[in-house]
Write a structure and sequence with these properties.
1 helix; 4-stranded antiparallel beta sheet; 5-stranded antiparallel beta sheet; 18% helix; single chain; 44% strand; Jelly Rolls; 133 residues; alpha+beta
């Protein structure tokens, strides 16, 4: 009977660990989450703030969000989308990406790191982003 009671604790704990690791596996190592809170007055929505640093050579894969992404470029850098000329993401430039609209898909080419502050207003319980091919 003891093994049964122990199993009642261990199985849910292992399940929670697996779900947590799966959520982290889809995240980018360059993104550091600062805060996550429920959006008051909007059940099922949350606000997630993050800071991301992409060094020269890093790629921000093409992705979309289940909600709105806003923010600004803290430190600008040149980026390049495959088949396109390099372009500057300037320091202080605003960021605004609408729900389910693919964006990103570029490589940072420098000269320094690209640093972004972002705030996402997204569906709670869904991944922060999904990859787009």
């Amino acid at each position: 009977m003891r093994w049964f009671r122990a199993g009642l604790f261990v199985v849910p704990s292992l399940f929670a660990l697996v779900i947590s690791l799966a959520a982290q596996a889809q995240d980018l190592p360059q993104r550091k989450e600062l805060k996550r809170v429920d959006l008051s007055g909007a059940p099922g929505m949350e606000v997630v703030s993050s800071i991301s640093e992409f060094k020269p050579g890093d790629v921000l894969p093409r992705h979309l969000h289940h909600g709105i992404e806003t923010g600004y470029v803290v430190q600008g850098a040149m980026v390049q989308t495959p088949g396109q000329a390099p372009m500057m993401l300037a320091t202080g430039a605003p960021i605004l990406n609408l729900r389910d609209v693919p964006h990103g898909g570029f490589k940072v080419i420098g000269p320094g790191s690209l640093i972004l502050y972002t705030a996402h207003i997204v569906d709670k319980g869904k991944p922060l982003y999904d990859w787009v091919k």
